[in-house]
Design goal:
mainly beta; 45% strand; single chain; 2 domains; Immunoglobulin-like; 5-stranded antiparallel sheet
Length: 315
């Protein structure tokens, strides 16, 4: 049993969705879901648990079966922490088909929360999920093509450091995810005397893009953001931590304090990565960026400070 998590109970339940029988088996660090359907119009290979396809498939004349085996950090499984419980949740879904009712079945595993529980130490090779209200932020180092989580935390000087972040939202209106600030430091905690290298400052300005190939990548959806950093000279050979502040915000209300900007060295100007026609919002990146008006942050957004690392950059 992990020291940071006491297993409250092992949930084993069978439900019916249409003609399907679903078995959910919650383990210590993972969940197994078995979908058995004797009469279905849905191809079981199209089913998803979170964003993961089945790990096992069987299609026979007497029916079809799909099995999902997923660790709690994978498949876009969300972690919610309450006063008494730690809950891991996702959904089984299917694509919307013209003549079939789309499938949506919630899966959840709940465990008793110990009084002394704290989040586990960050593992830079895994997506790490932080709950904030009814939002779940996730951030991790990725492979070069963003096909999965990175398998190494060592980078050569000048190489690419791919980072992906996302926010899962339940009861909010659609929100855009921004990286408000990101600093490299040799310590896992920032203090007045910390030695830092600025990457993103001034409320979303990728200052590292002025002199390197660091850049934001095109979004696939508003709730996700991808960042490609060029491995820097700062603290070569030492352990480095990236301190990043994630902000979920109303996408219709971007301003100087809520934006995602990078420097275009060809045109010698700052560009709003999500909508270049509004690049005037980035004109403050070389001075001091402020919003149009003072807001209470919790009224319009939720923010979270996250740490990635340690990683090492070598010559």
């Amino acid at each position: 049993m992990p020291s940071f998590l006491m297993l409250g109970f092992l949930m084993l339940a069978v439900f019916l969705v249409a003609q399907a029988a679903i078995t959910v088996n919650c383990g210590k660090n993972s969940v197994s879901v078995r979908w058995v359907d004797v009469d279905s119009q849905v191809d079981p290979s199209l089913l998803r648990l979170g964003d993961c396809p089945p790990t096992q498939l069987s299609v026979k004349s007497q029916g079809s079966e799909a099995v999902f085996d997923a660790e709690f950090w994978a498949c876009n499984i969300r972690r919610q922490v309450t006063t008494n419980e730690i809950i891991y949740e996702a959904e089984i879904t299917s694509p919307t088909l013209s003549k079939a009712t789309p499938i949506y079945y919630p899966v959840a595993c709940a465990y008793e929360r110990p009084e002394d529980w704290v989040p586990p130490l960050y593992d830079p090779l895994l997506f790490h999920t932080h709950g904030q209200g009814d939002l779940a932020f996730r951030i991790a180092l990725m492979k070069d093509d963003f096909s999965g989580v990175a398998t190494t935390t060592t980078f050569s000087l000048g190489s690419t450091i791919p980072i992906a972040a996302s926010v899962a939202q339940q009861n909010h209106q659609p929100l855009i995810l921004l990286i408000d600030e990101c600093l490299a430091s040799t310590t896992p905690e920032l203090g007045p005397d910390s030695h830092v290298y600025p990457l993103i400052t001034n409320n979303g300005c990728l200052v590292d893009s002025k002199n390197t190939n660091s850049r934001f990548l095109p979004r696939k959806q508003l709730s996700e953001i991808r960042l490609s950093l060029q491995a820097f000279k700062f603290a070569i050979g030492e352990e480095v931590y990236l301190h990043c502040r994630l902000v979920a915000w109303d996408p219709s209300d971007l301003d100087g304090s809520k934006k995602s900007c990078q420097y275009d060295r060809i045109s010698s100007r700052w560009v709003l990565t999500d909508d270049p026609s509004q690049s005037s919002l980035c004109s403050c990146c070389d001075t001091n960026c402020q919003g149009r008006k003072k807001r209470e942050i919790l009224a319009d957004s939720t923010a979270l400070n996250s740490v990635i690392g340690p990683l090492v950059i070598k010559n």
